[in-house]
UniProtKB/TrEMBL annotation:
Gene3D superfamilies: 2.60.40.790. This is Dynein axonemal assembly factor 4. One of its GO terms (molecular function) is nuclear estrogen receptor binding. CDD domains: p23_DYX1C1_like. The keyword Ribosomal protein does not apply. It is found in: Cell projection, Neuron projection; Dynein axonemal particle; Nucleus. Residues 3-87 form the CS domain. Transmembrane segments: none annotated. GO terms for cellular component: dynein axonemal particle; extracellular region; neuron projection; nucleus. The keyword Repeat applies. Its main location: other. GO terms for biological process: determination of left/right symmetry; epithelial cilium movement involved in extracellular fluid movement; heart development; inner dynein arm assembly; nervous system development; outer dynein arm assembly. Keywords: Cell projection, Cytoplasm, Neurogenesis, Nucleus, Repeat, TPR repeat.
Length: 130
């Protein structure tokens, strides 16, 4: 069972959310990050940070930097406004699991589409060269 990280900090502007997650002495190479427009997970055994974001972000324009014992996220908001909360207030584990699974499926579909587009581009390039 992972230890849930609760001592993170966050700040925001109208357009950006900043999240700092302490890595508790875990080496950079042991940190696994997964993010989508509505979900952020940082796993660094035995610790886990999960955020079911209260508002959507633009994952493609957001960044993560790891160093000096902290993971720093700069998340671009889809709608420019201040958030009341970083994460949704929901203790329903089934609902959270449903969100997690939906976001994982969306990420897999996005990767598949990107892979297919790259393969098509490579095929066209080879056809032009021959």
């Amino acid at each position: 069972m992972p230890l849930i990280v609760k001592d993170y900090t966050w700040t925001q502007t109208e357009s950006i959310v900043y999240i700092n997650v302490p890595l508790k002495g875990v080496k950079v190479g042991k940190v696994d990050i997964f993010s989508t427009d509505e979900y952020l997970k940082v796993h660094f055994p035995p610790f886990l940070f999960e955020a079911f974001l209260s508002e959507p972000i633009d994952d493609d324009k957001s960044t993560a930097k790891i160093g000096n014992g902290v993971a720093v996220f700069t998340l671009q908001k889809k709608k420019e406004r201040l958030w009341e909360h970083l994460v949704i207030n929901n203790n329903d584990k089934d609902k959270l699991r449903e969100i997690r699974e939906r976001e994982l499926l969306k990420a897999q579909e996005k990767l598949a589409a990107e892979s297919k587009a790259k393969a098509t581009k490579d095929t066209r390039r080879k056809e032009i060269c021959t």
